[in-house]
Amino acid sequence: MADKSSIEWTDATWNPVTGCTKISPGCENCYASRFSERFRGVPGHPFESGFDLTLRSERLLQPLEWKKSRMIFVNSMSDLFHKEIPRDHISKVFDTMEKADWHIYQVLTKRSSLLQKFVNERYQTGKAPAHIWLGVSVENDKFVSRITHLQNANVSVRFLSIEPLVGPVGKLNLQSINWVIVGGESGPGARPMDPKWAIDIRNQCVQLNVAFFFKQWGGRTPKARGRLLEGREWSQFPRAAFTSTPEYEPGIGA
Prior knowledge:
- By secondary structure, the chain is α/β, with parallel strands linked by helices.
- The protein has one domain (12-248).
- The protein is 20% helix and 16% strand.
- The protein has 5 helices and 9 strands.
- It has helices at 31-37, 87-99, 112-122, 145-151, 195-208; strands spanning 12-14, 17-18, 54-55, 71-74, 104-109, 132-137, 157-162, 179-183, 211-216.
- The chain has a 7-stranded parallel sheet.
- Helix 5 links the parallel strand 8 (179-183) and strand 9 (211-216).
- It is globular and about 45 Å long.
């Protein structure tokens, strides 16, 4: 668990699972895999097994230790809905998120159908608590079906991470979507992002009053080309989600 995070849209990270497998073009230059594999074979290192899927049961209760509320990106080094993660382990992650409810949790996946199935089975008579944000990654127009799975899940706060944006996404169905993050790819071999793709998404969000966050242009390093989109920074968060934790309220249009 990292008390500080360089990710612009969160405060901290919590990894009750690490490691993953690649399933779509957005995974091609995965930063988590690249980082983890640097330490494969190093005795005693947390990533001695590289990016192999690893359950970290000793970390399941970590958010309970943080008494000050913060936004926590869950599984920044994995995907909580990977098909090889036991349901019981995922349930324990949700148990902790429900108990440590003074935090906001940001759970992001590419396995959208598994998210939908798990959430709808867990919250059969209502919705996931509003402090548990659930989102899907969409890297181009071939994966917008993930949005439908998210919309059909019993979720209170839904978000999209359109990063790395490696192709146009076309017209998006943003019904019941509270937040959209857009960013270009970074690191060795980063694929360029056409400004038109990002501007189109921003315009759709503005038209429908959906909070929009432009994370980065990408390049050799995440901050290589800055965060300005048509001359301004876009750092909006979903206002309605902060009713129980007002200290996080940044305001639409921040």
